[in-house]
Design brief:
Length: about 80
Amino acid sequence: MIPQLSRLYPDKELELEVSPESAPFLVFTPGNVVLVPVINIQAFVLLPTSSERRPLFQLRARTNIIATIRVSSNKIQGSVTPGR
């Protein structure tokens, strides 16, 4: 899709607008927090003759993000992993 956009709109800037559709869903398990955000992504091409943005496409995405939290030596440590 992106190569086609560069051919359709050569030398034009592309703008992505990302916004949450709703509050993320959180699941707490021992040692982990699973975050399930649902986001909307809109792509626009910026036209050079004005401040107008031409809409190109819109996506709705849902993913899992897993945060693992550990406590060791009086420190809180963690990592974030994209889910499937």
